[in-house]
Amino acid sequence: MNNAQRKRMKEASDSLSSAIAIIEEVRDEEQTKLDNTPDSLQNTARYDMMQMDVDRIEDILDSLNGAETDLDDFLPPPPKRKAK
User: Fold this and answer.
1) 3-state SS assignment for residue 48
2) What whole-number distance in Å separates Cα of residue 12 and Cα of residue 24?
3) pTM (predicted TM-score)
4) Angle, CA of 72, 59 and 63, to the nearest 5°
């Protein structure tokens, strides 16, 4: 892999990390809404749909975190500079 390709792969890795952070924020916001739902509304279809959304976001995050790990493992370390 040449330097230009290495740079593009690093940019992709950085973008993926940013996407994961955004999705985690959304998941946390949705989980907070669930946690703050009054008991009287927890056995509703709307509550169940919100819970399914959180579960699905968790699945997505698991996949993306796996891809991020694979990408980080794939990326070679930067070339060592020769000492002068």
Assistant:
1) helix
2) 18
3) 0.82
4) 20
